[in-house]
Amino acid sequence: MKLEGPVGAYLRGVVDQWLMIAPKANPGMLEMFRDRDASPLRQMVPWAGEFVGKYLTSAVQVMRVARDKALKTWLSEFVGILIELQDEDGYLGPWPKRHRLTNTDALGGNTWDTWGHYHAILGLVLWDEECRDPEALACARRIADLLCEKYLGKQKVQLVDTGSTEMNLAPIHGLCLLYKKTKEEKYLDLSLQIVEEFGASRDGQPLAGDYLDKALQGTEFFETPKPRWESLHPIMGLAELYWITGNNTYREAFEQIWWSIVKLDRHNNGGFSSGEKATGNPYHLAAIESCCTIAWAALSVEMLKLTRNSVVADELELSLVNSVMGMHSSTGRWATYNTPMNGVRCASAHDIVFQSREGTPELNCCSVNTPRGFGMLSDWALMRDEEGLILNYYGPSKITARLRGHLNVTVKQETEYPVAGKIIISVSPSKATEFALKLRIPYWSSTTRVRLNGKTVPGVKPGRYLSLVRVWQEGDSIEVDMDLSLHVWEGARDCEGLASIYRGPILMTYDHRYNLDNADGEQQVRDTKTWDPVTCMLDIPKLDASRLKPKRVAWTDWLPPMLLLEVEGESGRTVRLCDFGSAGEAGTPYCSWLPVTNCPETQPFSRENPLRSGQV
């Protein structure tokens, strides 16, 4: 893969400014494993053991997309150090011997030790897939062996009894991945045992999320016992168990949970969670934690693999071009903990500074995890099925995939998408061959036009894949023209009387920086602890949806947004709206729920239009 344009720029920044320097600037990421049994013990947050695995997972997936040789060389050294820090019994966490995998610490508090080991397994398995590193795979297997030794069997302590179950049941996902690679039966046995523990209770109170049975009953995710975001990782184990066993109940439960989140807890910017959990209210203005959105994207990748539903890919795009871009500095130097719909952007190192420690001044749950939002493009940008290739990602790029045997196909895109709707796709197989190339037609693009080698392709329908079957050869070209007409999602509940405006997949946002000529009135001191999250102290002119005639304009000063539009507000005042990913970059407040009148007829949620938006 070679990505250009805004996504490519973010990737280069994340690699150079964070992934290449994070471990050496925060050496405690690794060193906490070296001195875990020494006195005095380190002061650590309960989830400290996750940092190394989340970093490795992010870095490997970004490496797949960015193809950065220096990053690959560094990660080879990093993995070697990590493997050396594993104890003989397989333990690879930061806690002393008598607390290993008990999920408790020396002060009687809870730790997320099995959660940390899950992330280590995931990172090591991904590294092995990329580099065929038998030592990395062996390291992951030793962790799994230790988990089985400690928890497998009815006569042993059950994992669900060790606390923090949303987090500490997550190894089911890693165990399933290892089973698929090794066919080690005990890994599958422990996975199935954990599924049984999903429904465990004590004194009538649930101990875990009951993800399988509640979902099969049609219970909305936010109404389940453990709707925190960490639950999405054990839920991913259900998808893997479907692939392993063929048991359709796992798939049914997984799909029910995914659709429930889209309907009730995925926000206008593609982010997930309100105050770190599902609440059943997509208009809730509480914090949208970056880790929650990354977990949501990972869940969506699995949903796309299961269903091959183009609407799922639309959701991944929505999260990428809005929330994932919005949670990162364009330089790649920092990322957020909270990427709110209305508010300001704060670096996670400031927002959740309580997680910093000696040796890990910049580490927190989000800082090591957010690059994965870009890295997961390696999983969904271009996919393969039994008929050929599925193109989900649009943007300036060049992607080469092995179709079968020694037959490779290169798909090159020349475009400004998502800023502009025209995409020119060149298809170049290593030799002429017949296969299907399926193009994602977004559900919000009402009238998409497609031409193949200059001839119009009929039957293009929104919210579906357009399958082009032919003998492809060098020089074949496809032109796609997306409909980037504005579409509007009318708000409710916390956002009653407001609306979100989209141009294609991009959420348009009012940023103070681009509207200083509207900043009239008495000056006030901003206090984000007490301000109204609906207005963010901004006097935003009302917009009339029936009269919106957007004009794309350039920002001639430094630090331009990806997209800037001018529209007319009340009293003829000019209002400038930027893309959500750029909003707040300079520290100014912004709003993506805007005062809009005469909205198009409210659209109910449907699986064909999960944004509920109508064209203006």
Low-confidence segments, given as residue ranges, are: none
- The CATH class name of the largest domain reads Mainly Alpha
Estimate the strand proportion.
15-25%
CATH arch. level architecture of the largest domain: Alpha/alpha barrel
Number of discrete domains: 3
Largest sheet: 11 strands, mixed
Structural classification = alpha+beta
- How many individual β-strands? 24
The tally of helices reads: 18
Helicity, as a percent range: 25-40%
CATH topology of the largest domain: Glycosyltransferase
> What is the mean predicted local confidence, pLDDT?
96
**Over the alpha carbons, how many angstroms does the gyration radius reach?**
24 Å
How many angstroms does the end-to-end distance come to?
36 Å
The 3D shape can be described as globular
Describe what this molecule looks like in 3D.
The protein is an alpha+beta fold. The chain has 3 domains: 2-380, Glycosyltransferase (Alpha/alpha barrel); 384-417 and 422-481, Immunoglobulin-like; 486-615, no CATH class. The chain is 34% helix and 18% strand. It contains 18 helices and 24 strands. The strands form 4 sheets. Strands 4, 15, 16, 17, 18, 19, 20, 21, 22, 23 and 24 form an 11-stranded mixed beta sheet that branches. It has a 7-stranded antiparallel beta sheet with strand order 1-7-8-9-14-11-12. Strand 16 and strand 17 form a beta hairpin. Helix 4 packs antiparallel against helix 5 (69-84) and helix 6 packs antiparallel against helix 7. It is globular. The two termini are 36 Å apart. The model has no long low-confidence stretch (mean pLDDT 96).
